[in-house]
UniProtKB/TrEMBL annotation:
Stretches for region Disordered: 576-596
EC number, UniProt record: 1.1.99.28
EC class (word): oxidoreductase
Keywords, sorted A to Z: Oxidoreductase
GO MF term list: glucose-fructose oxidoreductase activity; nucleotide binding
This protein's name: Glucose--fructose oxidoreductase
PANTHER family for the chain: BCDNA.GH03377 (PTHR43818), NADH-DEPENDENT DEHYDROGENASE-RELATED (PTHR43818:SF12)
Length: 596
């Protein structure tokens, strides 16, 4: 990016300016703000390559299969850069997910922006045209048998990360798997060991490692602007409530005619009153949506442009209803009866996998892992070298405070961690692991709740000389000392689109007037592809197995602490892929013994 000296001066002045006073700083890393604000290049092709130092394209694109095309899989599809990735096949057992993989998610304008689909990303006219180049499978093992596929992106439910990644690496494929790395620590270590044995690159999608905003926040800390970190407060609060939960999408039922819908509602109300009618409508939500879409499409008063959008939403909802025919038990999902008598079908476990402990990891795996990862990145920036510093202990509580017995994962989690701070280790070198001053610690307080989304999500980093706030992965604010009126705005795109939660919706706050801030999805995929094509070692990846293992250990140990209602100290051996030590569960196997 070629900026004039005048533009550079303006950019740096914007970075340094504070309401009420001017903080004197060195230029930010790679003149971040000037590149973003003046060149508007965050969303432009090539920015990640220029910033992170990898090639701006691949002359021989990486040939990839996408395994799992649900909510997060479709986000990753939307982040694909055709200059790096050639999608050869997808695999998913749900017709709904296959449909969205090609056409995107038309639930709202925001979801479509986050999940535009393969047709949009690669310029196909429709699914028929796309399928001439992209094969569709229900069984991902058939995808793995293809010799022309070099690598896979895995975005399956958490409990499937390990078996799919092992199968892929045993088939000679490089892997990028969504976070959390795996369902338990033993599985994480086995994945790391097989990756090492096969010499294949295994990356995990903790995208903050490729976020320019977070990287420049780290640069701010390293330059001493906020002094020594002594406390971090992080949260991810959501307004999910019973009957309105993004992790509990509607279940498919058999298709009904409008007459059958009316008859069903009358019968439900006669049997159970208004509550019976409400429950019937919840159960048949998709059927009722389809009827409503058809009615509006037939309405001559509705504009043609709106009818086209409604037609896409209708087609998508009809595919969602087609999931009724999926034999979930065939793919390992199980029916069961929960405490309180709630009965779950195998299909419900598949569709609502995040709310079951057998298939997911709850709030800590889905949300907390991101923010504890970020906290570790911030704290590690105060130490010598590029070693990720791990926590010393955790106290945690949680429970199902507002949701009924229709799930077994917690809906509220509160955790407090102790991390080593600057000066804790001798020579400030964590690799020596010799404690110099045991009082030099950083306290990290984390909460993730449902029922009230006040405050959204983000991190507040408190130092002895300043405060750094990161909000919703789009805004970074720097305050001098504890004066909340003296602020540096690192990202001035105040009207950028609001971020979307993992597994949830994506609601725009306003139209972006400058540029949208990258969350790092595209960059992580580009760099993974570039490292594979250029034969780079695994440690070149920003979130290689040892880094991903650490994030998993923290999240999963927190879940154990909640279950045991006890304080837990982290064993350094838990973070070592070569060690058999784990915080709970079975012992990991040697690489040679890990089979599909």
């Amino acid at each position: 990016m070629n900026l004039s000296d005048e533009e550079k001066a303006i950019g740096q002045d914007n970075f340094r300016r504070v309401t009420g006073e001017l903080i004197s700083t060195n230029p930010s890393r790679r003149d971040f703000l000037q590149d973003v604000t003046l060149a508007g290049a965050v969303a432009a092709g090539g920015f990640g390559a220029a910033y992170w130092g990898y090639g701006k394209k691949l002359d021989d694109r990486l040939r990839v299969g996408v395994i799992g095309t649900g909510d997060e899989g479709n986000v990753l599809i939307g982040a694909l850069n055709p200059n790096y990735i050639e999608v050869k096949a997808i695999a998913d057992i749900r017709p709904f997910n296959q449909h969205r993989a090609f056409y995107g998610d038309w639930s709202s304008d925001g979801t479509l922006k986050a999940r535009p689909g393969l047709c949009k990303v690669y310029g196909y006219a429709d699914r028929t045209a796309a399928e001439k180049e992209i094969a569709v499978y229900t069984d991902y093992n058939e995808l793995l048998e293809r010799d022309d596929i070099e690598a896979v992106i895995i975005a399956l439910p958490l409990w499937m990360h390990h078996p799919a990644a092992i199968a892929a690496m045993r088939a000679g494929k490089h892997v990028l798997t969504e976070k959390l790395m795996a369902w338990d620590v033993a599985q994480c270590k086995e994945m790391a060991r097989v990756a090492d044995e096969t010499e294949l690159l295994l990356a995990t999608g903790h995208q903050r490692h490729y976020s320019v905003l977070y990287d420049n926040a780290v640069d701010t800390i390293r330059r001493g602007l906020i002094g020594d970190i002594h406390s971090i407060r992080a949260q991810w609060h959501r307004g999910n409530l019973p009957g309105n939960d993004s992790w509990q999408p509607p279940l498919p039922t058999e298709m009904l005619t409008p007459e059958e819908i009316s008859a069903g509602e009358r019968a439900a109300k006669a049997a159970g009153g208004e509550e019976g009618l409400r429950q019937w409508r919840i159960e048949h939500q998709l059927v009722r949506e389809i009827a409503a879409y058809k009615k509006r499409i037939d309405d001559p008063k509705v504009k043609i442009a709106d009818k086209e959008k409604l037609s896409m939403r209708l087609a998508q909802t009809e595919k969602q209803l087609d999931d009724f025919r999926v034999d979930a038990a065939k793919y390992g999902y199980e029916a069961g009866t929960l405490e309180g008598g709630y009965h779950r079908t195998a299909l419900e476990e598949l569709i609502r996998w995040r709310i079951w402990n057998r298939t997911g990891g709850g709030l800590m795996a889905e949300l907390g892992s991101h923010q504890l990862d970020a906290s570790g990145i911030f704290i590690s920036s105060q130490f010598e070298g590029h070693v990720k510093v791990n926590p010393l202990s955790v106290n945690a509580v949680g429970g199902r405070y507002i949701f009924p017995h229709d799930r077994d994962c917690d809906d509220h989690v509160y955790a407090t961690y102790e991390y080593p701070g600057k000066g804790y280790y001798e020579d400030n070198d964590p690799t020596k692991a010799k404690v110099a001053d045991a009082n030099k610690k950083v306290g990290v307080v984390y909460s993730s709740i449902n029922g009230n989304g006040f405050g959204g999500y983000g991190e507040v980093v408190l130092g002895t000389e300043g405060t750094l706030i990161l909000e919703r992965e789009k805004d970074v604010m720097l305050y001098a000392g504890s004066k909340t009126r003296t602020k540096v705005t690192v990202n001035d795109a105040a009207t950028a689109l609001d971020s979307y939660e993992t597994g949830g919706g994506y609601t725009p706050a306003a139209e972006a007037v400058t540029q949208e801030v990258s969350r790092g999805y595209q960059e992580e995929i580009e760099h993974w592809a570039w490292c594979i094509r250029n034969g780079e070692p695994a440690t070149t990846l920003h979130c290689h197995p040892k880094v991903a293992l650490a994030d998993a250990v923290i999240a999963l140990t927190t879940n154990i602490a909640i279950e045991k209602q006890a304080r837990m100290e982290f064993d350094p051996e838990w973070f070592d892929p070569a060690s058999d030590a784990v915080p709970g569960g079975r012992t990991p196997r040697k690489a040679a013994d890990v089979k599909v």
